[in-house]
Design goal:
Largest sheet of chain A: 5 strands, antiparallel
Oligomer: heterodimer
Strand content of chain B: 25-35%
CATH topology of chain B: Transcription Regulator spoIIAA
Helix content of chain A: 25-40%
Helix content of chain B: 25-40%
Number of strands of chain A: 5
Structural class of chain B: alpha/beta
Shape of chain A: globular
Structural class of chain A: alpha+beta
Chain lengths: 145, 114
């Protein structure tokens, strides 16, 4: 692995635009991912960070609410880990929603984030770590689709 | 960062032009405006996303919610956008099959796709 960059950010929605801007700049500077893959990374990181904010919101107000973002860079690969300290969850335990082509899917306004991350990344991993959840997103320079 | 929301009417359609980035920080203002329009009886909506630089799953959820509410009153929500970056998010989630997507507001008003 090449460069490693770590950010600690408040778990608040107003920092979300900043996080994706910084991670985008990091990937543009430290890797050779093509533009469309940088766009995929920007969206996947936003989804992961938004989930971490949601998880942190469930903690009592007097606890520390931060999200750690770790970026590992190689020319042809960017790995980003988004870590919260909010107790963890099991993505496999989520109830699948009806297919989007079914009218019943319109009853659900949430639940699109994780399927979106799966589509955007070459590798997606959720792991319990240090009292919370770490989401690992790996994107390679290889164009998908 | 605030979301730009501008409203006008065109041939019986209410056109809401959105500008900026839509995520969990800004989606609530879009949700409020859409719900307000629907509550006012404006059930024929065109959401113009051409000036949106970024959109995530929260934004899609808001649009799905508006579509659901509009359909209760036999209304419709059409999306106008020609930006590949934004359209890709609809395609990946397959919501391009739930919404009527048009490449311009003019096309959405006419009901002409592509």
């Amino acid at each position: 692995m090449g460069d490693h960059i770590e950010l600690v950010l408040p778990a608040r929605p107003e920092f979300l635009a900043m996080v994706r801007a910084i991670v985008t700049l990091i990937a543009e500077t430290g890797s050779k991912l093509p533009g469309p893959r940088i766009d995929d990374l920007r969206l996947a990181v936003t989804e992961a960070f938004a989930n971490a904010i949601d998880a942190e919101r469930r903690k009592p107000d007097d606890q520390r609410h931060v999200v750690v973002v770790r970026c590992d860079l190689d020319p042809d690969l960017v790995a980003v880990e988004v870590h919260d300290e909010a107790g963890g969850f099991d993505p496999d335990a989520l109830t699948p929603h009806p297919d989007v082509t079914k009218p019943a899917r319109l009853q659900f306004e949430r639940g699109l984030g994780i399927p979106l991350m799966r589509e955007l990344t070459d590798e997606l991993e959720f792991r319990a770590e240090g009292g919370g959840t770490t989401v690992r997103l790996v994107l390679t320079a290889h164009l998908r689709g | 960062m605030d979301l730009g929301l501008a409203e006008r009417t065109d041939a019986g359609w209410t056109v809401l032009t959105v500008s900026g980035e839509i995520d969990i920080a800004t989606a609530p203002s879009l949700r409020e405006r859409l719900h307000a329009l629907l509550a006012e009886g404006k059930h024929k909506l065109i959401v113009d996303l051409d000036d949106v630089g970024f959109l995530d799953s929260t934004a899609l959820g808001v649009l799905v919610g508006a579509l659901k509410r509009a359909r209760i009153d036999n209304g419709e929500v059409r999306i106008a956008c020609a930006q590949p970056r934004v359209l890709k998010v609809f395609e990946i989630t397959r919501l391009d099959s739930a919404f009527d997507l048009f490449d311009s507001v003019e096309g959405a008003v006419r009901g002409a796709q592509g």
